[in-house]
Write a structure and sequence with these properties.
Shape: globular
Oligomer: single chain
CATH class: Alpha Beta
Number of domains: 1
Order of helices and strands: HEEEEHEHHEHEEH
Strand content: 15-25%
CATH topology: L-fuculose-1-phosphate Aldolase
Radius of gyration: 16 Å
Number of helices: 6
Largest sheet: 8 strands, mixed
CATH superfamily: Class II aldolase/adducin N-terminal domain
Distance between the termini: 57 Å
Strand order of the largest sheet: 4-3-2-1-5-8-7-6
Structural class: alpha+beta
Number of strands: 8
């Protein structure tokens, strides 16, 4: 394996940031990225058993045909279908994060879309809702692709997000750092919208 830049140190950094900044919880979440000819993805049970204390050696590696070339494929995140569907259908996507953020999860629980709240979230437009579908399923993966497809042209410019009803969120980006940036921005929008009524 000879990808020009190993993304595993960044994956570890982002995993730790997500947990410490309440961008996900021990109930789950996962992240992946495509670098060169390989896709790197976090293992299952990262939240419940490891409390997001990801280490580089825990990360699994797949090739462009989605065959595992490093690690035990049985230990790959259970949301592999959703991650791989994004890579298969959107060449501009090279980073995917599924998470359970504290503020955004209010919108997921209610099945409500998230509108922009400021200049730095306006470009994302309204974050749409994917219906409540079984976690880890191909049905969920297909629904994510269907929601992203009409806006796929925007992926050359910036990442995008989706609310997963009764579940969490999914964000995609041009690389993993881009996806993380989308996640933080949308979480701040969720916080702003939840706090706004207090202004009277």
């Amino acid at each position: 394996m000879s990808d020009s830049q190993d993304p595993r140190p960044l994956m570890v950094e982002i995993a730790h940031l997500m947990y410490s900044r309440f961008l996900t919880n021990s109930a789950g979440g996962n992240l992946s990225c495509r670098v060169g000819e390989h896709i790197y993805i976090t293992p299952r049970y990262l939240g419940s058993k490891h409390r997001w204390q990801l280490r580089e050696e825990m990360i699994l590696v797949f090739d462009r045909e989605f065959r595992c070339v490093e690690g035990d494929p049985a230990m790959a995140s259970r949301e592999v279908p959703m991650h791989f569907a994004c890579y298969r259908h959107f060449p501009a996507v090279n980073g995917v994060i599924h998470a359970h953020p504290r503020e955004l999860n209010v919108f997921a629980a209610a099945g409500k879309p998230l509108r922009p709240t400021n200049q730095y979230t306006e470009k994302f437009g309204t974050v749409e809702v994917v219906p409540n579908l079984p976690a880890h399923s191909q049905e969920l993966a297909d629904a994510v692709v269907a929601k992203l497809t009409p806006r796929a042209h925007l992926l050359e410019q910036h990442g995008l997000g989706l609310i997963l009803a009764w579940h969490g969120v999914l964000v995609v980006g041009r690389d993993l750092a881009d996806a993380y940036d989308v996640l933080e921005r949308l979480e701040w929008s969720a916080h702003a919208l939840l706090m706004e009524p207090r202004l009277g």
